[in-house]
Amino acid sequence: MPRYALKIEYDGGPFCGWQRQRDGQPSVQAAIEAALARLGAAQTIAAAGRTDAGVHATGQVAHCDMQREWDVFRLAGAINAHLRPLPVAVVAVARVADDFHARFSAVERRYLFRLAMRRAPATHDRGLVWQVGHDLDLAAMQAGAAFLVGRHDFTTFRAALCQAASPVKTLDEISIRRVEGMGGPEIQFSLRARSFLHNQVRSIVGTLERVGAGAWKPDRVRAALAARERSACGPVCPPQGLYLAGVGYADDPFAATEGSGGQPPHPRDI
Fold first, then answer.
1. Cβ atoms within 10 Å of 203's Cβ, excluding its own
2. Do the annotations mark residue 111 as ligand-binding?
3. Which among 30, 140, 173, 244 has the fewest CB atoms less than 10 Å away?
4. Are strands 88-96 and 3-10 parallel, antiparallel or unpaired?
5. 228 closest CA partner among 149, 151, 152, 114
6. pLDDT tens-digit map of 99-126
7. How many domains does the chain have?
């Protein structure tokens, strides 16, 4: 059975998260599995990251096994035809080795968090950003974030119910920049690591927002990290500004197939 990697984007608002739920709540995984079943490939698929309810993706990766060989352009188009009108799209497909695993073969994950500084209610970005009604000090947040880069015990910044075997992770990068978004100024946080703890990104961003607002001094981030106690963390920010922006592999399976999601399928493939 040939194996394919799928690069997926989705609006997480209508879903309970990536993972299929026993009670039948809508999930991204269930939507894609239903589309694959209509192509004769009923199966449970695996993804690089199990995003929570309300979290979005521009670069999620999953893999599936098909009953026959497919042209990657036609496979993307056929899956997308069966996903409509859900806000989920396969933007690229790549044929991969039989031992490729979307989760276990990944060497890094990249997240983006969008924070809009705007007093008026968001319109075009509603549900896609975390909105605060005050300006934030970019330099202060950058100073606080610097304490988090590297290998640390991130107990302070993980959910109490996190199931990871160890709280020790290496945060390879956290960059923060101010941009002009569609609805006004945004602060964008980009984080990169091999893997993340449950709620780690939202805990970090919520804490750094307090630094930017002037409620915390940057040094307090270092003290919170050293405390290794969940109670030392700042507020956990809401999920709607968070995006799984990309997944890295030793050999990029999509290097030659970017944009393969735009081709319409032949009727016999649907």
1. 23
2. yes
3. 173
4. antiparallel
5. 152
6. 999 999 999 999 999 999 999 999 999 9
7. 2
